[in-house]
Amino acid sequence: MGAISTERYETGATLLSSVEAESTVRTVNGIELHVVAAGERSDPLVVLLHGFPEFWYGWRRQIEPLVDAGYRVLVPDQRGYNLSEKPSGVRPYRIPECSQDIVELIASEGRDSARVVGHDWGGAVAWDLALRRPEAVDRLAIVNAPHPVVYRHHLLSNPEQLRRSWYAFCYQLPWLPELACRAGNFALLERALRETAAPGTFTDAAFDRYRRAWRRDGALTAMLNWYRAAGRYPPSLPRERIDAPTLIVWGTDDFALTTELAIDADQYCENSRLELLPETSHWVQHERPERLTELLLEAFESDR
């Protein structure tokens, strides 16, 4: 583990102005992850996992209140994103590889387990981690990300979910998705965020930071390779049910994922709480940051 000079990295921890945080590099699972770390090292550990097409910055509104509540917070750029290493090829982006990153990230803090929060693809990693390495997850929180068994079932049986997932099939193509996403200074990715969120959710300043992350060498292909790996190498799971106490938060206006996914996922958890947020899109942590943080703290502190 090592600290890096964040002044050299315009998409590092210096983007946070209201909480003391640092950009660090953690060597995990054979690669280097950039991780924003905040809070006292001795405090209970929370790991926040972003999805596509974000980077650690997508959790910026949750970091300070979690630290203020007495938590140590780690927010990695997941493999392939922003300042983290970008392995070549598709196989390195299989979900079990990505969840192993988080097992070893937790261990890099000298811990055996953590409270793990995931949104979108970060949620896919969090589900996999809780199923594959349940001992590493004290509490699980999922934000608009389907349980893998439920998602597969819905793709086969729910025409509406299949229709909403069209873009994921398009991303399976070689090089063409990169060409389309990069055109017009990443206009397609910007539009995908702006037009699926409430008006004003993403500012011009935020998009400037996202574009800097998307522009990094190899980042766009690596980000898309998460989709390609899921299509080519669907993981086999050792179990289907979640043992860890689980919070599922779901914006019901999600453009890509039906609310039925959340309702059915709840049935695969031994001890769970389902919170449906009406008039909220896929981008819950941006549109309802205070409510999401409140729900996280309630779930985390139930036995403190």
Features:
304 residues, alpha/beta, Rossmann fold, 9-stranded mixed β-sheet, 12 helices
Summary of the model, kept short:
The protein is an alpha/beta fold and 304 residues long.
The overall pLDDT average reads 95
**Domain module tally:** 1
The level-1 CATH class? Alpha Beta
How many β strands by DSSP? 9
Percent in strands? 15-25%
- Spans of at least 5 consecutive residues whose pLDDT stays below 50 are none
The 3D shape can be described as globular
CATH architecture: 3-Layer(aba) Sandwich
User: Major beta sheet, specifics?
Assistant: 9 strands, mixed
The tally of helices reads: 12
CATH superfamily: Alpha/Beta hydrolase fold, catalytic domain
Radius of gyration: 18 Å
Give me the secondary-structure category: alpha/beta
Indicate the percent of residues in helices.
40-55%
| Spatial gap, N to C terminus | 29 Å
- Note the run of SSEs as H and E: EEEEHEHEHEHHHHHHEHEHH
Strand line-up in the sheet with most strands: 1-2-3-5-4-6-7-8-9
In the CATH hierarchy, the third-tier topology is known as Rossmann fold
